[in-house]
Amino acid sequence: MGNGVQQHQAALAQREVQPRASSGESEGLKQTRSVLNSLLSGALAGAVAKTAVAPLDRTKIIFQVSSARFSAKEAYRLIYRTYLKDGFFSLWRGNSATMVRVIPYAAIQFCAHEQYKRLLGGYYGFQGKALPPFPRLLAGSMAGTTAAMLTYPLDMVRARMAVTPKEMYSNILHVFVRISREEGLKTLYRGFTPTILGVMPYAGLSFFTYETLKKLHAERSGRPQPYSYERLAFGACAGLLGQSASYPLDVVRRRMQTAGVTGHTYGTIFGTMREIMAEEGVIRGLYKGLSMNWVKGPIAVGISFTTFDLTQILLRKLQQMGYAVR
After folding, report:
1. pLDDT tens for each residue of 24-69
2. Do 288 and 251 form a contact (C-beta atoms < 8 A)?
3. Segment 117-120 long-range contacts (CB within 8 Å, at least 24 positions apart)
4. CA distances for 320 relative to 114, 308, 316, 323, 324, angstroms
């Protein structure tokens, strides 16, 4: 009897000791969980946001890579004609390629942003606090650059699928195979430089604006966490500023990515810009489709940031519940 009680007490004592194995191990486990949470939350955020605006995104790309004049009326006509000709789900053509690209892209970008914030916070002495303005901007730019570098060929494939009929490319793998055979592997990285030059101000300003608005909100309202609709509004502002700043480079990269199927021979960033401006002008060429981006961009970025934050909060709560049960 006494022996049984001693064994039970020893088992309880062992259970209490196990979670506190060592501070280094605990810190490492916490960091691993943080990275996994960021990757999962970022992947979900990207998938939800891009799927929500996929028809508008596809329409924007079609106008970006053609010399046709853009207007809201023409955009509506294009969407309606596509719907009548190919059916409702054709408006999401290329979205599977978008998901293949955007899920790893968003996962890497959000996770990298969290890690860069932590590293820069330690370097500047703001660990666990809101970063000062310049490191805040730098963390966003570095996160966007990291994600773009690791996932660029998938963006190229997505652009090709968005502007071509389904008879030309049957699936994502088919795009890779045809481009590699007919145009060479280097084509998978055509438009890479304007992408990186564009993503730095875009990601930097987007993350900077969102983080800044959350910080100002916390200081003014006294609430550490904004409501969901406030997060959407902050994300919309972030998307509006980020995409407006980098839009001409977005047009350039789309032209360079789709040159193989549109009959153009765009070679360099400045050469592409000169050709677009000579044929279509500055506003109608380099800023073609920007008004549509002002509709879809804020919606997408707002949904993305909100989904990321709410998923992070949910995962932390679930982990806390799991730890309490153990």
Report:
1. 447 777 788 889 999 999 999 999 999 988 888 888 777 777 777 7
2. yes
3. none
4. 20, 18, 6, 5, 6
